[in-house]
Each structure stands twice: as C-alpha cells, then as structure tokens.
Amino acid sequence: MRVLMFGWEFPPHITGGLGTACFGLTKGLVKHGIEVIFVVPKAFGDETKEGFRLVSASDVVLDFHQQQYQEFWQKVQYMEIGSNLVPYLDPEEFERITTKEVLAGKDVSQTVFSRIYSFSGKYGPNLMEEVARYALVASSIAMKNTFDVIHAHDWLTYPAGIAAKEVTGKPLVVHVHATEFDRSGEHVNQNVYDIERKGMTEADLVITVSNLTRQIVIEKYGIDPEKVITVHNAVEPTDHPEMEGVQKHVKEKIVTFLGRVTYQKGPDYFVEAAYKVLQRDSNVRFVMAGSGDLLNRMIRRVAQLKISTKFHFTGFLAGPEVDTMFAMSDVYVMPSVSEPFGISPLEAMRSNVPVVISKQSGVAEVLKHALKVDFWDIDALADAIYGILHYDALRKMFGRYGKAEVDNLKWDNAAINVIEVYNKAVYK
Question: How far apart are CA 158 and CA 150, in angstroms?
Fold first, then answer.
C-alpha cells in the first residue's frame, strides 16, 4: 500500500510534538511495508529520511492558468487567507505581532498563484496564505503520483488532503493531533474551527490521538462516532549511554517542565506548585524549558514570588538538549489544561524519570506508572512533586516500572493500528 501523507513539520525542524509524532509514525509504517510519500511545505535538506520519500512543496512549480487550480481557488475562499492568524498566541501577543506585520490590502491570490512559491514552513503571519498554496501544490502532486490513501496531519494540511481527494477520488484520512478547543479553550478562532470541521467532515475516517480528543471531535464538531478512531501516540526507542555521565553541577534536586509556555500547557500551575514545594524544601531547583506567549508572564510571576534563585528558564530545547535535560531531572511535570496526548512524559519515562501529569491529558489513558492530578489542583501537584523527591522507594518504583511500561509503547504498534484504518478506508 502507498500513502500520500501531508504534514506541516518534520524533524529536526519542529516546534512541538506534531513533527515528532509524524516522524515516529512514518518510520513505523515503513517497517510494516507501507510506502510513504511525505509532503512538507519546505524541506531544509537535513531531515532524516528512512525508507520513505520526502517532497518539498517549495520545489513544485504550478501553471496557475490550468483550470483545476482556478476552480480550487474558488473553493478555498472560506479560509480567509489574509486573516493574520498565528497559532498558539494569546490575544496580547497576537496584537503585538500583527500590528507590526499587516497583510491588509495585499493581493493574496496573486501571490498564491505565482509559478514559484517559497514556503517558510513556519507559523508566521503569512500562514493562511501558505496553507492555501500548500493545498494547490497538493492537488498537483496528487495528480502526478499513484497511491491508495491520503493522510493529512492536523488542520494546516486538511485543505491539502481535501484537494488531493477531489482530484483523485482516493480516500482521505485526517489525523487530529489537537483541536482549536485545546489551543484556545472556549475562545476558538472561527477560521481554524471551520477548517478543522471541513477536514473532518470531508474525511472518510478520522484518527484521534486519544479518547479525550475523540469526544471533542464528536461533541464539538458533530462528527459521526462511527468514523472516529483512536490510535494512541508512542515514543521513539532510544539508547544514550553517554547520558548516564551527565553532570547536574548543582546539589539540589531538579524538577522540569518541558513544552510550549502557553495556556494549554498549564505553566502557571507549575510555577505556583514550585512556590509551595520550596516553602517546604529549599533544596530543589525548578526548570521551565520552552518558549511561548506566556513566557514573560511566567518570568514576572517567579520574580513576584521571590523564587528566581531556584527557578531557571532555558528557552526552547530540541534533540540532544532534551535528552540532556531529562538526564539531569529528578521529576518531570506536565500540568496541561487540555492535552490531546502528550509525548514528552513518555520521553521523560524513557530516561527513567518519574512523571507527574494532569488527568486532563490523553497520555493519562495509557500510563499506569505516573502520578496523575487535576491540572488546577496546585496543592495536589505540589504534594506529588514533594513525595517523589523525598521518598526514594516511590521514586525508584515509578522510574523503573515507568521505563518498562513506556518501552512497550512503540510506534511500530501504533502503525499497525493506523494500517487497519487505511484498510478500512480503502476497502469500505
């Protein structure tokens, strides 16, 4: 079976778990004999390609005089291309950026229909313009290749998946890694919601990364439960013996938060819990690794609480830096308000680090050896962190059994479940 797959990012050029998941799943599919044509907006040349074909949309030249492109353009108008949308920003940060870079009055259609278009492949103010062009490229690639099924990851590529389906008639599977309700709470961006719902509606089958996300898809988007199938994420196996010799250079225990510093990830709950722990034990250091629209607010709050000598901000970490951070950590915390899945706890457990996660996360559905608390319960979060730090038997049990548990959560197994979805879409 051959799959035409659309994704917005691919390692090492990632901003979060989406690119990591795409990479792991693709490798798993290839191991099971599935041929994959993976299309990204822009390939940088240093991506790891293990048995599959990586296509850069920036290299595709379009003849915009062809009728099918003009017809498709009429169908993507609902996207309101010039909307200045930048994902993962709160209103304050959004206003700061968009007042600097205004697209109003720009002839977007002329840009999108240029013969050669250079994608940034990032989440900038021209994002919706890139989404539209990506969909046009998708229809061109689909017409020139043979495949059995289309797989589109996350809302940015749903229009591309729809375009490929329209020109070939092949079945479409969309993969929901997160929804607008996860990113924005109840204050959804209507443009994004419309694209998400359109993609799910047009898809033959919908894959969600957790049952938590499945319920959102069914209840908030009105999608038929019969076509929504949960396939939990996994984690890449790793063996880094060199990490065993990593030095902390501090005598204190280290508690780590690693992820986007945004509303969805609950960084403010981590800061408040850190304050409570430090009132009971000053021999602890807290690390917030990541970047995002709430970062400055978190820095200010740490200063207000007068715990800045025990609190560190590293900025965004990727690749070996993540492994090094986990090697230095005694506890990993993910207090997400709404987490469709959450791969980072698996990465921490893979490094023998005990984890504390919110009950409002998809990964809580598959993990047994993790402490689970409600994201809003700062006292319970602080107690969980304190308990792991001070009771060696508890720490060793969660570290040992947690690693054994996560070693069985492999992308190879997730790929088998995805192949079953493909077969259902193709042969239904």
Answer: 10
Cβ burial, residue 91 (10 Å; 0-12/13-18/19+): exposed
Q: What is the mean pLDDT of residues 9-14?
A: 65
Instruction: HSE, CB side, 13 Å, CA atoms: give it for residue 334.
Output: 29
Residues of the chain with CATH 3.40.50.2000: 2-234+411-427, 241-406
Distance CA 43, CA 171 (A): 26
What is the predicted pLDDT for the residue at 76? Answer: 45
Q: Is 421 within 8 Å of 384 (Cβ atoms)?
A: no
Task: In whole angstroms, give the CA distance from residue 197 to residue 158.
Answer: 9
| 25-37: pLDDT as tens digits | 998 999 999 999 9
Domain 2-234+411-427, CATH: 3.40.50.2000
Whether 302 contacts 308, CB under 8 Å: yes
Dump strand ranges (E) for 316-400: 331-334, 355-358, 371-373
Banded pLDDT at 94 (limits 50, 70, 90)? very low
The Cα–Cα gap between 92 and 105 comes to 23
- Residue 128 burial (CB < 10 Å; 0-12/13-18/19+)? buried
pLDDT, tens only, 349-367? 988 899 999 999 999 999 9
Distance between CA 139 and CA 159 in Å, rounded?
10
The SS3 call for residue 373 is strand
> Residue 100: which residues within 8 A CB-CB, separation 6 or more?
none
**Which spans in 230-319 are helix H?**
267-280, 295-304
Strand ranges inside 160-252, DSSP E: 172-176, 205-208, 228-230
Structure tokens at 345: 């706890």
What is the reported pLDDT for 48?
A: 59
The pTM of this model reads: 0.82
**What amino acid is encoded at 408 in this protein?**
N
What is the rounded distance in angstroms from the CA atom of residue 226 to the CA atom of residue 41? 32
The CATH topology of domain 241-406 is Rossmann fold (3.40.50)
> Which 3 state secondary structure label does DSSP give 416?
helix
In sequence order, what E strands does 154-305 have? 172-176, 205-208, 228-230, 253-258, 284-289
Q: Evaluate whether 259 touches 290 at the Cβ level (below 8 Å).
A: yes
Task: Measure the CA angle with vertex 72, ends 122 and 84; round to 5°.
Answer: 35
Cα distance between residue 119 and residue 266, in whole Å: 32
The DSSP secondary-structure symbol of 308 reads G
